[in-house]
Amino acid sequence: NVAEAEQAVRACRYAPAGARSFGPARAGGALGPGYYPDANTQIACIPMIETVEALQNLDAILDVPGIDAVYVGPADLSISLGLAPGVDNDHQSFVDAIDAILAGTAKRGIAAYLACVSFMDAQLGLVLDALDREDRWKDTIVVFLGDNGHHFGDHGGLWRKNTLFEESLRVPLIIASPGQPQPGVSTPALA
Questions:
Q1: Any idea what the Cα angle at residue 19 is, between residues 14 and 23, rounded to 5°?
Q2: Integer Cα distance of 49 and 81 in angstroms
Q3: What's the pTM value of the predicted model, to 2 decimals?
Q4: How far apart are CA 45 and CA 14, in angstroms?
């Protein structure tokens, strides 16, 4: 809700823009003595939009000054909509929710991070379809890559992506370019 979004912004910013505690030993040691003067411009406040209540208050939340981006947790959003949890969902209520979030963030120039594989796949499809429709393949190079892999309970129950196990290091890298000598060839590694 709006009050929580305002609290989040205050918690992320130092006075006078917020109420964040400074902790000079930690900040100075980790980020150097020049951290404080520009800190409020470098800190991103990214609330989660993953409940029906947040969707009902979406415009008001996105209008809170200091919101830099939003994160959509697809499993929790699905549950809140009465759907089965998962990282992707093609149910119309979920699709409508994602569309509303994207429209709201685009209108305000706010980034939206969607942890949804099928959504990203659909967006890539739109780009590729446009390249076909506009006959732009002859002068366009497309590079698609992910940020990094994620563990889903493997290696003894890891649920994060900050490890050196192969699953979190190997990411998709797809390159399509005019005159590519061997399209469709995959490699287990880059030399």
A1: 60
A2: 12
A3: 0.64
A4: 12
